[in-house]
């Protein structure tokens, strides 16, 4: 791989399950060891687009834990997430990525103001970019979900925000501090989780000032993906949905994080938003999330839908979704890294609503139906090849 042709992928939560599976997948697919199943940007619809090759992605990131990536990959292999036969084949690539992971932001350990921490985070990203001479670097937050942002922390003015960062205290949650550092470093940014991240209004000002794009929020990998495909069917057939309730059972780090009521509220709000957006009205029923540690890296979602047909006849539909969240999320991380890097190359700045296909709560986009989102994505990415950068949808 030659310098200046590579794309950097800087992951927040770089030693977590999703990040590790992403690094393993990029190495394995890039080397031709496995097929690119579930990588949307590797499908035939994306033929002819000039996206960064998977074998030219370089990984680094921030994390607050010290487990080396090869060790984390071994743990995931024992859980059935990563095929054991890949461990030796990708070991060197994982070690390369692990040497590029730097200490993240731990609010309990930091004694400086957040401005000082942000400078350290920016310096980590810039030095990574310089070492690898990447053409572009995309920062993607795959760390734990955070509670919704307090209203009094919704900074709209960039100068006001930077004054707050320079004072003692914690004006920004970790995800937004990482977003601030990424944008300051001139990198595209992706909120893969429902955390506040780049949704602080002042960060949109910062992104435009540094001429970089950002996307989010909260990638849809399972239950909500099904919702955004099924709900339009009911609407198109004029079947009246009376209620839609869901129960999510999951373990691992996500389950432990979502056992916290604040983090669980962020996720629930994000998961419930598409249905009302598609139907144009609120629907009875809620999404429940339960931590079941014994499930480990796996999750199960069960949904119950009550609807009315002709003459008011009551009917129901139920579905069960069982899967491995890391294996569902990792290919989307790769897709988003490639697409955001291409958007920055094309000169896009600010939010990328065209990437709403990937998210439960897409920034800058009110369209929640899966198929129209996909059509927007395809039109946009092929338009980039034709020199049409676009400014939203």
TrEMBL record:
Q: Which InterPro entries match?
A: Myo-inos-1-P_Synthase, Myo-inos-1-P_Synthase_GAPDH, NAD(P)-bd_dom_sf
Q: What is this protein called?
A: Myo-inositol-1-phosphate synthase
Single GO molecular function? inositol-3-phosphate synthase activity
- One GO biological process term: phospholipid biosynthetic process
Tell me which Pfam families the record gives: Inos-1-P_synth, NAD_binding_5
User: Per its UniProt record, what PANTHER family does this chain match?
Assistant: MYO-INOSITOL-1 PHOSPHATE SYNTHASE
Q: What family is this protein classified in? A: Belongs to the myo-inositol 1-phosphate synthase family.
Location of the Myo-inositol-1-phosphate synthase GAPDH-like domain? 222-326
SUPFAM superfamilies reported for this sequence:
Glyceraldehyde-3-phosphate dehydrogenase-like, C-terminal domain (SSF55347), NAD(P)-binding Rossmann-fold domains (SSF51735)
Q: Can you name the source organism? A: Actinomadura rudentiformis
